[in-house]
Amino acid sequence: MVELPIDTLYAGCPREIAPGRKSAIRKEPLEPPWRIEAEGLVGDRQADRRYHGGAEKALHHYPREHYDAWRADVPELAQEWRPAAFGENISTLGLTETEACVGDVFALGGARLQVSQGRQPCLTLNFRFGRRDMARRTQETMRCGWYYRVLETGAAQPGDLLRLMERPRPDWPLARLFALLYLRPRAFDELTEMAALPELAESWRALARRRIESGKVEDWRRRLGG
Description:
Layout: E1 3-5, E2 10-11, E3 15-18, E4 21-23, E5 28-29, E6 34-37, E7 40-41, E8 59-63, H1 66-73, E9 90-92, E10 105-108, E11 111-118, H2 124-129, H3 134-141, E12 146-152, E13 154-156, E14 161-166, H4 174-182, H5 188-195, H6 202-214, H7 221-224
Parallel strand pairs: 8-9
Antiparallel strand pairs: 1-14, 2-5, 3-4, 6-7, 6-13, 8-12, 10-11, 10-14, 11-12
Helix pairs in contact: 5-6
């Protein structure tokens, strides 16, 4: 049974992170009680709604364990490696991409959340950390985190548990999805399974279908920033 205590949730508003570029990736602890609506946490906003936010990316979860790895990999940014550095709303110890599965349903206070997709890192991370390679590093290490859709809205407060309620796809941990996207991009049998997962966000199912139909892997250079 997965039961993780939540001490705070994080939210942010758009602000300039580089000349001419705004993002809400810099998040701070949000005063409780926390209200979780269909498109996320009340008080949290996104700068570019084309790529961020929405029902399938309502809340972002990033494992706190990853910060120790980043501290070792990029020690010159040691002061940055703390919860919410990657723009997450939820930061916990005890659950990573290896354990969390597509379609997992969690209760948090009065809300119910479902794992909808992984996070695909983009060049916003490069601007956030002042390094041209941060998006690429995040993808290569697959320390990406994941998103939830909101099945039931509700309120939560400090001390509430993020409690696993259902696991319909135990064979599909997020780590398998990331490996399929980035390490085995032409594993077409698995991509066919991926495309058929009803709990997976439609954009990711469509990505799998495009690979199967075209036999090609998408070009990541623009998303990762060169």
